[in-house]
Amino acid sequence: MKWLPLLDQYDDLANLQQHCLQCHRCSLRDNARGVVFGDGAPDARLMFVGEAPGVDEDRLGKPFVGAAGQLLEKIMESVGLQRSDVYITNIAKCRPPGNRIPKKDEAEACFVYLVRQIELIQPRLIVCLGALSTQYLVHNDAKITVVRGNVYEKGGIKIVPTFHPAAILRDANKKKPVWEDFKKIKELYDQVSTSKNEPQ
Ligand code: URA
């Protein structure tokens, strides 16, 4: 699949970020302190995509810095991945009021930024954290309990859905399957790390 060539006048990540920081495509921006664009290496081979910023992310302007983010980093480290090796972003770049799930029109308004982030960063592997990013990047009616741990491929990019770390904080039974998924993610990461510029 070819990612839709929207926002293609922004030809580097910093330009795209500047544009995104001014975004008012949906009303989420009205109640958020700011836009949480993404964080990490601009040439990362591995990208994580969550749902939307929470209160800590909104305050600090960085994705996954609250309790779920701290757990995500611990899980990454347990399989030998460092946060500095990856790029982390969300489907919605602004915090929804009360941390609700972004509505369809909000997620859709924001999706163009993610598409362009993917085009510019060119990750070889994307991990969908939770149902929302899985539905946007794998299939619109994918059930996370069914598809987690599977490896999909689109446009030469491998995509692995897993449970959102916040789901583990609510239900400790999800810890083991997520750890299994991350062992697989690390294996895939090692494979794609040696072949970043291979033709697809
Ligand atoms: N949950 C998310 O989905 N994204 C964040 O950035 C933080 C928590």
Describe what this molecule looks like in 3D.
Helices cover 42% and strands 13% of the residues. It has helices at residues 13-21, 28-31, 55-60, 67-78, 104-121, 131-137, 144-147, 165-170, 175-193; strands spanning 39-40, 46-50, 86-90, 125-129, 152-154, 157-162. The protein contains nine helices and six strands. The chain has one domain: 3-Layer(aba) Sandwich (Uracil-DNA Glycosylase, subunit E), CATH 3.40.470.10. A six-stranded mixed β-sheet has the order 1-3-2-4-6-5. The protein has 200 residues and is α/β, with parallel strands linked by helices. The mean pLDDT is 94. A hairpin with a 2-residue loop joins β5 (152-154) and β6 (157-162). The chain binds uracil. Uracil (URA) is lined by residues 50-54, 57, 63-64, 66, 68-69, 90, 166.
